[in-house]
Amino acid sequence: MAPIRSLPRLRSLAALVGAAIALSGLAPAVIASEGDSSIVKRYIVVFNGEYALDGSYALGGGYALVGQAGTYALDQGYALGRNYALYALNDVYALADDYALTADENAQDAYALFGEYALDSGYALDAGYALGSGYALASETATYALDESYALTGDSAGYALDESYALADSYALGDNYALARDYALYALTTAGGVMTADLSRQAGIMVVESKNAAFAETLAGYALVADVAQDHGWKQFPTLAEAVANGQLTMVTPTGALPGAESDPLESMQWSMAQIRTAQARAVQAGSPKVDVGIVDTGIDGNHLDFIANGSSNVDCQRGADFTAQGPGIGSPFACVDNNFHGTHVAGIVAARANGHGVVGVAPNVTLVPIKVCDADGHCYFSDALEGITYAGDLALDVINMSFFVDDDEFQQSTEFKCLSDPVQRVFRTAIERALKYARKEGVTLVAAAGNSDANFDAAERGCEVVPAQSDGVVTVAALGPSSEKAWYSNWGSDIDVAAPGGNDQLVGAGDCALNVLSTLPGNLWGCIEGTSMAAPHATGVAALIVSQFGKADKLGRLSMSPGSVADRLENSAIDIGIKRGDVCFGEGRIDALRAVNNWNPDTYDSSAPFCPEYNE
Asked: What is the mean pLDDT of the chain?
């Protein structure tokens, strides 16, 4: 996202190693034969540096351009420095830590950089040999080489590491450039891998399949590679049948369609919407179809009656994407088939239509984009979540809802906290955080469920966080019960940003819809369940209303608003509960749709809301 804490709650645990659908293929030129087997495994490869392998990004500090055996490298001791300077070419011609050779450090005065010569544009080893912007190590000759055969020249594309993989003119070793992507592919194929998803441009990550049992170990020998880990699927949600059988989910039957009615048949049962005043907010702003909300989950039943008004659905199946093993990939209509139930329930909270059927969502007129990363039996796949978040960034969606957490397999016996000290957990956490950073850079407001373990974020071991809930730039949502009390299961701590209704039915199996959250289910059904999974989409819906009300139209007429501005309005319009002015259980307070669409932000305190029992822990 060990025991697995599902969102909503799960009682039985399972782990499943998933297989990815190939999004793009590259047949290996060289397959490592040692350790081959008939089992194809999927891996996440995280590259070093400032993430990407194209001309937009540079390699970060401490990482050399290294071949598997050091043959084509500066060598492991001589890396690209903190500010992307070359520390050394060999023992003779080096660039010292301060980016210049002093008189004591040069072997030959003619080739040294003294204090007055910097690595900035226009400065050289001497008058003829510039290292500045657009220049190679030598401007006219092949004299000053990485080794005796392969020189960096200024007027040719022969910036080679070997005969096939060169640093071409557009991939110079300057502040804004990185090693050519071809070299990464060379490393993958040499280790026996086939790339199935290329996220190198967005986040410096590739998803790779391989039969080579030694793939991870082999690839880790390249300094260009920061981390490698085998992909994993974890059971995050129950199936619909499991949830009904164990009493987590209660089915509700509406009295029938009420075309033209002032309210939908089940709206009176939606205590969660009344708590955050969505009906009053919709009188001001009911959401714009030009605002796109991604539901990163199990898909959405796009044919559900509660998403249809005037003959059309507000679920955009064309831009939906199915990243699960069962689905055929990006753009597939299968994203609009939710053969679990979780994604449809979340989507209904955000944007069920006011159409005389069932329930009404927070922002009924916004556009929903299903991004399926979890399958029918509730298994989510790490690589699928990674691809789904990145895809949301590619589409530049306005808001995405993430009611899940990243986990590794049961053998690791992890909690939902991912620790940088653990090599597997580090890969999962680093990769997801890079994808989140990319999506936010593309204008996506990120909203995530806090988690259902009643865990104190602040008590975790140093370097351990719940992902994506505690990741940078994410709005983290805790769960409330009907009286604005902290839900018994909701995680808490200083990283909570806001609180929203999620249900608080402590008697598992009681199925009381007065305590659980009512929303849509696949197949024109409705039901009640609890979890921070249900709290997060309430906040996502309010964020969508904020963009609808205050966003600016781009050249295509779509509304947009910076993620920071959306989060600020969401938090500043919340009603303070618990300890005044910031709270480890409720963050900035209970979200309020009416205050948000009116941009009301004077401090308002609700003294009737119960204090949090965890204050004494």
From this structure: 75
Are the beta carbons of 447 and 399 closer than 8 angstroms?
A: yes
Mean pLDDT of 455-478: 94
Q: How many CB atoms sit inside 10 A of residue 17's CB?
A: 15
Buried b (16+ CB within 10 A) or exposed e, 398-421: bbbbbbbbbbbbbeeebbbbbbee
Q: Which residue has the tokens 């008004």?
A: 309
Classify domain 19-55+178-231 at the CATH topology level.
Alpha-Beta Plaits (3.30.70)
Instruction: List all residues 6 or more positions away from 245 whose beta carbon is below 8 Å from its beta carbon.
Output: none
C-alpha 504/C-alpha 484 separation (Å) is 10
Residue extents of the structural domains in the chain? 19-55+178-231, 58-176, 240-616
Q: What is the DSSP string of 420-452?
A: TTSHHHHHHHHHHHHHHHHHHHTTPEEEEE--S
60 has a pLDDT exceeding 50: no
Band of pLDDT at residue 589, cut at 50, 70 and 90: very high
Cβ–Cβ < 8 Å for 609, 577: yes
Q: What is the pLDDT of residues 67-97, one digit of tens each?
A: 333 333 333 333 333 233 333 333 333 333 3
Strand ranges in 76-117 using DSSP code E only, listed in sequence order: none
Angle ∠(403,443,367) on CA atoms, nearest 5: 60
